[in-house]
C-alpha cells in the first residue's frame, strides 16, 4: 500500500511542544491571556495574536521546538515495520511552509535517527488531498481534523491520529480515529489482509 504520513503530531510530538511554548509565550513574553479555543491544533488559531506576535513567536521558538520535539511513541518502530512489510511511505507535511530552513533541520534529524526511510517527500504542503490523489495514496495518517475530513472526502482512507485536545470527528468508511502507532499498525494490517 501507499501510505501518506504527516510529520508534526504524527511522527514528531511537536504539536505538544508548540502548545507548551505558545502558552508560555502568551503569558510571559506577551504578558496576556489571549487564548481563544484550546481545541484548535494550530497555535495561530488557538490564540488571538496579531501577525507580528505570530512572527515573534516563530522567530524565538520555532527552531527550538523542532529540535526538542521527540518522536511520537512507537512511530520509529512502526514506520520501520511498515517499510519492512513492503509499503511505500510518502511524507506529506506542511512543515517548511512557515520557515523553509526547517526542512533541512528535519532532514538532518531524520537521517541522524535512521528515519530517512520515506520513498517521497512533500514539504510545505497545505493541500494534502491533491498530493494524495496524485500519488494514489491508499491511506493517509494526519492529526489535523479538517485535513482528515478533506482527504476522506476524496474517498481516500484516512487515519485521524488524535493525541491532544481537538475537535471530535465521526468515523465513517474513510475516516478512522486512532490514538497511537500500535493501533495504526493493527489497522493497516487489517486493511491489507482484506
Describe the structure.
The protein is α/β, with parallel strands linked by helices and 194 residues long. The chain has two domains: 2-13 and 70-193, Rossmann fold (3-Layer(aba) Sandwich), CATH 3.40.50; 14-68, no CATH class. Helix content is 45%, strand content 13%. The chain contains eight helices and six strands. The protein has helices spanning 14-29, 43-46, 51-68, 75-84, 101-112, 128-134, 145-152, 181-193; strands at residues 2-5, 88-92, 120-122, 139-142, 157-161, 175-178. The chain has a six-stranded parallel β-sheet with strand order 3-2-1-4-5-6, sandwiched between helices. Strand 2 (88-92), helix 5 (101-112) and strand 3 (120-122) form a beta-alpha-beta unit. Helix 1 (14-29) crosses helix 3 and helix 4 (75-84) runs parallel beside helix 8 (181-193). It is globular, with a radius of gyration of 17 Å. The model has no long low-confidence stretch (mean pLDDT 93).
Structural domains: how many: 2
Measured distance between first and last alpha carbons: 12 Å
Taken as a percent bin, the fraction of beta residues is 5-15%
What integer is the average pLDDT? Answer: 93
Radius of gyration: 17 Å
Q: Order of strands side by side in the largest beta sheet?
A: 3-2-1-4-5-6
| Overall geometric form | globular
Write down the CATH topology of the largest domain. Answer: Rossmann fold
Q: Care to count the β-strands?
A: 6
Largest sheet composition: 6 strands, parallel
The helix content, as a percent range, equals: 40-55%
CATH superfamily of the largest domain: HAD superfamily/HAD-like
Q: SSE string, helix = H, strand = E?
A: EHHHHEHEHEHEEH
Name of the CATH class of the largest domain: Alpha Beta
List low-confidence stretches: none
The number of helical elements comes to 8
Structural class: alpha/beta
